[in-house]
Amino acid sequence: MLEPVCPELQKFYDIFDQVDQSKVSEFKEFLEANAVNFNLFKDGTFIERSFPFDMIPRIIPKSEFDELEEGIIQRVKALNAFLNDIYNDQKIVKDGIVPREYVDSAKAFLPEFMGVNPPKGIRTHISGIDLVKDAVSGKWVILEDNLRVPSGVSYPLTIRRAFRHTYPEFFESMKISKIKHYGDELKAAMDYVNTGGLNVVLTPGRYNSAYYEHSYLAKITGATLATGDDLIVQNDEVFLCSYDGERQRVGAIYRRLDDDFLDPEEFEPDTLIGVKGITRAYRAGNIAIMNSIGNGVADDKGIYYFVPQMVKYYLDEEPILSNAPTYLPYYEKDREYVLANIDKLVIKDVAEAGGYGVLFGNRLTSEKRAEIIEMILAEPRRWIAQEVIEFYDLPCMMEGGIVPRKADLRAYVIHGEKVTVSMGGLTRYAMEEGNYLVNSSQGGGFKDTWVVEL
């Protein structure tokens, strides 16, 4: 079902009907000229490709976005409080809000970092909160919290520049909230937690799917783009090594690689992209790592179930935004419901991400359904089940004209001295009709998101 046309979107269409639509090709030329890629690595093959882009933006009325912003800020504050708690006193576990098993068995929980606290108590420096708009209720629903290495923010930032250049008419006639301050806000957050020294964006290198983004973010923040080979740890401090042998101390690292590859001393010993000894510097309080080590426990799909309760527990507030209706087979009542209704639910493996490990019960063969039931019974902690959210389609320009496609929204949040939400975000859409998996890693496209005030 297409999202209803609001007055703000109608104004876009009124202008769109009058502009030179042949200039749409300039967007593709701009993306190719600037190497705006989201590369795929599938079946052992590296595929370098331009990120599919649609010029019809998602338009959200500012009054609607204001409520979203308030709810997202509330959620990120609660998640940061949870992480600080879970790596210290674990009061939420002791008080019976979150079962201990859900923490201890979380793949990304790192008990060896208990008692290690990051600068300024901030762990959720950069968050990506994924939402959809329910076509039944008309309300926004949170599908997922991304607190490890959320990607994608560079794409709306980049395409906004192309939009303003190619079609200035929209920006002259519409009151569109600006997003160009994102780089300044990210730099301010890096400076706020910096322990003394340079700001660095740590990239795995050009073969990473989001390498374009890494270089882009380094540019707009004035940070140094570096690989693991460029950094060295001495006396529990991190230094950037230049080609002439000069060494400069580093105070904050926006890392774009997962915990497993961050430090061969602590994690995967064969990693070639990490920094040997960086966890020693982190434990000593000599480096701010953004996002913090061990954050993955908070975006575990099983822990997601408890986030509304975290809001009440840590903030003493009612949640502004809701989760999708979710069931934990860990609980007997939920398990019975899941097994009885598996053909109507979405089943997710809690350890997977990027659209992987997602199974739609109504698309499973009877044999596969029976197999999944056995797996749920054997490992109930490994799975969650959710009601299928009939979220809105958005209009997308494709070769056959304007067609409806499922789309979500990733909102970007920066947590520095204060918590801010970018006044836009990344709207991802499925390339195929009826496909509910819109993730970029599944081959989806993207469009800009405009927050518009009449």
UniProtKB/TrEMBL annotation:
Superkingdom in the source lineage: Bacteria
Circularly permuted ATP-grasp type domain ranges (all copies): 57-430
SUPFAM superfamilies: Glutathione synthetase ATP-binding domain-like
Pfam families given in the database record: CP_ATPgrasp_2
Protein name: Circularly permuted ATP-grasp type 2 domain-containing protein
Source species of the chain: Sulfuricurvum kujiense (strain ATCC BAA-921 / DSM 16994 / JCM 11577 / YK-1)
Lineage, uppermost ranks: Bacteria, Pseudomonadati, Campylobacterota, Epsilonproteobacteria, Campylobacterales
